[in-house]
Inverse folding.
């Protein structure tokens, strides 16, 4: 990277560290009160171009019945490149535009990405949760950082994920013979409760229903506009 780019990266690192001091990794409400859960996902019209158009979808479900209560979309020009550990700076602006459209008030949000399983505890789910002061959970599909053992090959087997010797979340196998996901609190929820909410949000597929449906809705939306 150019020196100028490195200066920007150092500035963003400092911002993430500052935001991390506002994190609340404890339950804002009892976990059994979390019933209405929103899934958040983002896609792009052309992932290889910069700038490109980012599209966010938020799908809200009642996880007791898996009834869809609301789905919203929004678009935004994105010119921040993909840089590991700085995903929020690429995807959060369009997510926040969609968030402002919601008429339903979810009890919690599950975001396709990391929470505190992040070098500075500021994955996109944590960044979103701090800015909106909501209950947020990260559910990422691939390793970003941390030490862990693979869970057993059975549904809902899990193992702790440690970063710098601190428990930050869990690696969870949601289906037998399926790659596991990484679950961690974003904000306003504990590590253990984050795992419980994600498990309760899983139906028949690898991903929690809120983020799975948000992803499917995005694919349909994207086909209409390109």
């Amino acid at each position: 990277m150019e020196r100028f780019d490195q200066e920007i990266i150092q500035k963003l690192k400092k911002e993430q560290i500052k935001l991390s001091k506002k994190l609340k990794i404890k339950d804002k409400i009892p976990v059994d009160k979390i019933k209405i859960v929103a899934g958040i996902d983002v896609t792009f019209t052309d992932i290889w171009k910069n700038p490109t158009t980012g599209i966010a979808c938020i799908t809200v479900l009642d996880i007791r019945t898996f009834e869809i209560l609301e789905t919203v979309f929004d678009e935004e020009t994105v010119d921040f490149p993909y840089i590991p550990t700085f995903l929020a700076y690429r995807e959060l602006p369009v997510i926040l535009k969609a968030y402002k459209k919601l008429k339903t008030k979810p009890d919690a949000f599950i975001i396709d990405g990391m929470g505190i399983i992040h070098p500075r505890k500021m994955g996109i789910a944590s960044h979103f949760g701090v800015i909106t002061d909501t209950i947020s959970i990260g559910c990422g599909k691939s390793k970003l950082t941390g030490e862990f053992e693979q869970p057993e090959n059975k549904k809902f087997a899990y193992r702790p994920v440690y970063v710098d010797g601190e428990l930050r979340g869990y690696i969870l196998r949601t289906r037998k013979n399926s790659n596991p996901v990484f679950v961690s609190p974003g904000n306003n929820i504990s590590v253990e409760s984050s795992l419980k909410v994600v498990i309760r949000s899983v139906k028949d597929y690898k991903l929690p229903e809120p983020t799975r449906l948000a992803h499917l809705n995005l694919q349909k939306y994207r086909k209409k506009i390109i």
Summary: The first helix runs from residue 3 to 20. The beta strands are 36-44, 52-62, 67-78, 108-111, 136-140, 157-163, 166-173, 181-187.
